[in-house]
Amino acid sequence: MEERILDRDFLSQSRDGDWYGNNAAVLCPVCGKLFIVSGFVNKEPRRCPRCGKSNARMTGEQLSLEWPDAVNEVQILAREELERLQRLDEFIQLVNEGGAISHKSIEGRLQRTEKVAFIERSNKMVAVAALKRASLQHAETITERTEYELSDRIPELGYVAVSGDWRGLNLSSKVVDRLLSVFGGASLYATTSEPKIKCILTNRKFRWVGREYPSKERPSQQVSLWIRETSQ
């Protein structure tokens, strides 16, 4: 079972839940239904009234939420498969929601995408990450910005995005891990300005190299380059 512990402060400020008195509202990680749990009425864990696959229980100032591991099963499809299944636009839309991608890339339909790892809820993608093919032009641009000599033969890990309603469930880690397990120990790089993604990369043996540079999409944020070198 997957488990997540949520406290009063988190739920009170969350757009996907609430806490009032002895009652809390929490989002089911399986079907997305918002359901109520009462510390007074529900002496035993309450199951999601829609799908019955998750359960939640209040204990003091905390709420524990559990759901089956299999719910987070990650699928991987090549770009060609996404196009054949008419799901490429769905992937692009979710990446676009994240906001940390240029309009030019979106208009170009994320052409460097080779493989996409994703998690679904109700047959809709809610978390994605992609393997992007190596690019001489992109490597030269990154080298100029970071003053770090990036090889033009190294693929990129990127387009990590989670739908707003499903954030906070570690789904980004799961799609990244699935891609890395398939790709093996070969060298990869990633660029990001997001603290959570930096944490994910650090915990997966990526290291920060070169200097930071301003994000074109979010000028107040600094983008950094992260490298995972070939496992020996």
- Enumerate how many helices there are, as a single number: 7
CATH fold group of the largest domain: Aminopeptidase
CATH class of the largest domain: Alpha Beta
- Uncertain runs: none
Give the helix level as a range of percent.
25-40%
Verbal overview:
- With 232 residues, the chain is an alpha+beta fold.
- The chain folds into two domains: 2-70; 73-228, Aminopeptidase (3-Layer(aba) Sandwich), CATH 3.40.630.
- The protein is 26% helix and 35% strand.
- The radius of gyration is 20 Å and the shape is elongated.
Summarize the structure.
With 232 residues, the protein is an alpha+beta fold. It is built from seven helices and 14 strands. The two termini are 34 Å apart.
SSE arrangement:
Blueprint: E1 2-7, H1 8-13, E2 18-20, E3 23-27, E4 34-38, E5 46-47, E6 55-59, E7 62-67, E8 75-78, H2 79-84, H3 88-98, H4 103-107, E9 113-121, E10 124-132, H5 136-146, E11 156-162, H6 171-183, E12 188-192, H7 195-202, E13 207-214, E14 222-228
Antiparallel strand pairs: 1-7, 2-3, 3-4, 5-6, 6-7, 8-9, 9-10, 10-11, 12-14, 13-14
